[in-house]
Protein: Threonine ammonia-lyase
Organism: Helicobacter valdiviensis
Amino acid sequence: MIALSKIVDARKKLNGITQHTKLAYAPKLSLLSKAQIYLKQENLQNTGSFKLRGAFNKISNLTQEQRENGVIAASAGNHAQGVAYSAKHFGIKAVIVMPESTPLLKVMGVKELGAEAILHGNNYDESYAYALEYAKKHNLCFIHPFADDEVIAGQGTIALEMIEDQSNLSTIVVPIGGGGLICGIAAAYKQMLPHTKIIGVVASGAPGMYHSFYKKEIQSTKSVRTIADGIAVRDVNPLNFGYILESVDEIVSVDDEEIANAILYLLENQKLVVEGAGASVVAALLHHKFTLKENEQVGLILSGGNIDVNMLGVIIEKGLARSHRKMRFCVTLIDKPGSLQALSNLLSKLGANIVKIDFDRISTSLTYGDANVTLFLETKGKEHQEEIRKELKANGYEFIEI
């Protein structure tokens, strides 16, 4: 693991650049887990992610000649903004290579900071390979997002803040993509409070580090697919893998459904907007991926908050449907005045709020004189939806839920 002195030195360089983000007690999560849960809110960090810490520390350690030549990075977004922010601070050129699927919010964030954004590749690893070639061609200094001791040291400053704020945390839960964040945090804890348990969380759609950790050797994966774009890393880097084997106690996996549930949970219950990577640790807690002792004090790292608004909208809509607060069904009515009003009156009496209606009288599957009506309802839970189904059937309506 990297030396504690490197992390301490990184903190000095970050003074006035990054925020000492809040380590907030989470009462509802604590009640659910029967433990004492604290959230390290790096989603509220400058640029919306912890990545600024490592990027700035790395660039601050470059020679004057390296800075004058400019820097380049490959990133799904958060490291990109960290590099762009740091380059702007030092007044140097920055080029960022990002996967073509990178959320627009992150692309615009890079451009607004004055960096050049190049969209190339289907995932981080393809962007990474292109960025290395581009760096050689244009004599730019490559800033690795995780496989670099200076970057790792910058991420480790999170642990120093947490230890200052709450020294009794016995378990720390950290998202894992490439592994830079957990390597830095684990290094600080294992050297300052060595009995602290470090648990990593990966997305099941990017399982390289998970399988490598338990096989004790690097396992290759052909592709990655997850809504947690911040941890969608395909290949396991030997440097980070070695540090993780040395200092991490356990790694667990969460799927996209569990991550989406956690994003919605944090939005509703903690009033926090957190991207998939950051929400993965809460997903692991909510879905019992690891064991905690009663009243154990646990720190969860919410690594970033740069979630695409379109993705957030989909997660909210699906979440409302899963929790029985949205309902959609199609019913066939006689196409004459009053038919729709009668159905609307029944739903009104049942306390269902109609938010949208689609009317179709020309489908070839319809009998002449009929119409298909699709209704979108706001409902009050599972029992309310059961009541609606029961009354529709009692009143002779044939319907199909969508």
About this structure: Residues 50-142 form a domain with the Rossmann fold fold (CATH 3.40.50.1100). The longest strand covers residues 326-334. The two ends are 53 Å apart (CA to CA). The chain has three domains: 4-48+148-317, 50-142, 324-401.
